[in-house]
Design a protein that fits this description.
The structure is a single chain. This protein has one helix spanning 15-44; strands spanning 69-72, 75-79, 91-92, 95-99, 110-117, 136-141, 148-150, 153-154, 159-164, 170-181, 187-198, 213-216, 219-224, 232-241, 244-245, 257-262, 268-269, 272-273, 281-287, 292-302, 305-315. It is mainly beta and 316 residues long. It has a 6-stranded mixed sheet, with no helix packed on it. The longest helix has 30 residues, at 15-44. The N and C termini lie far apart (78 Å).
């Protein structure tokens, strides 16, 4: 500052005024810069989600599925894959399905073993309990027959295992449906898929014609509702026996569990149950990601026995 040119001729203002003004400007400018830097750092480093408590995540879902972040009893959960069909990839949302064995002899009991790994390829060992289980495993043949809903157990190293028998030769698909809990407490709901094989002659069966009613073990099961592409709509199932409403028992935290698969690519739909409106019925909220033919599998429990009713439907 001492090298600055002399001021022009005329009455000069006291030098102290200029210095005070300069100091004030520097202070104000520094405060503004600090606020802007703090805002930017906050955007770059958002506070982590609070870690979940000891209470498990329950099965209740009343929101429309597949809509990104949602809540399980107060915990923020990100739905990997959004509203589209899930299970089409072995990796999604930063997690990868790693099966140890993918080939099984036809009709002979074997053991399916797999891990869920994170982006650093570390086995994941923390999972939220959703629908009464930390892991739901669906196995189905590619022609949408031979449906199995299994619940494997996890070892300390993150390896899941479950007995598995593939009753018919052909190409099969496994779906691991889970909610992973990250180190910072973030929860991500993911469905990952991988192919399995049962070597032998393969004669695929055609998909049965669409119907809104079927029978299984003496129970008549029907549904009401018209699933639409890109919309979340209620689908209400009723179970009757001898003309009366069946005494449905809670199964996996609800009076029924529904899985829907799309013919062709075997896309897996996220379907969530609502509360029971009346005895013998259960309603689900279903979002069909696009037109096509689908196969729905309803698990329900009566007298301690779980049965599965299957339906074909066409979404226009």
């Amino acid at each position: 500052m001492s090298a600055a040119a002399a001021p022009p001729a005329g009455p000069a203002e006291p030098a102290g005024v200029d210095q005070s003004t300069l100091r004030l400007a520097l202070v104000v400018g520094g405060l503004v810069l600090a606020v802007l830097l703090g805002f930017g750092l906050g955007r770059l480093n958002p506070p982590p989600t609070a870690a979940p408590g000891t209470a498990p995540v329950t099965a209740g879902h009343t929101h429309a599925p597949g809509t990104g972040a949602h809540s399980h009893d107060g915990a923020d959960v990100t739905q990997a894959g959004g509203a589209d069909a899930a299970g089409l990839s072995i990796s999604s949302g930063g997690y990868t399905l790693a099966p140890s064995t993918v080939e099984f002899p036809v009709g002979r009991a074997g053991e399916l073993r797999f891990q869920i790994r994170d982006e650093q390829r570390r086995p994941v060992t923390r999972f939220a309990v959703v629908h009464d289980k930390p892991m739901h495993l669906i196995v189905v043949r590619r022609d949408l027959t031979g449906f199995q809903h299994l619940h494997p157990t996890m070892a300390a190293d993150g390896t899941w295992s479950v007995p598995l028998t593939l009753p018919q030769a052909g190409a099969w698909r496994m779906y691991a449906d889970f909610t992973a809990v990250a180190d910072d407490g973030r929860q991500t709901a993911v469905t990952l898929g991988a192919d399995l094989a049962a070597p032998g002659p393969y004669a695929p069966r055609p998909l049965p014609a669409p119907a809104t009613s079927t029978t299984v073990d003496g129970f008549t099961v029907g549904y009401e509702g018209t699933p639409k592409a890109g919309e979340t709509v209620p689908v209400r199932f009723t179970v009757r026996t001898g003309g009366a409403a069946a005494a449905l028992e809670p199964y996996l935290g609800s009076y029924g569990h529904l899985v829907a698969l799309r013919e062709g690519d075997l896309g897996y739909l996220h379907v969530h149950p609502g509360p029971q409106a009346e005895p013998g019925s259960v309603t689900f909220w279903m979002t069909a990601p696009g037109p096509g033919r689908y196969r729905m599998f309803l698990d329900f429990q009566v007298g301690g026995v779980v049965r599965t009713a299957a339906f074909s439907l066409t979404v226009g």
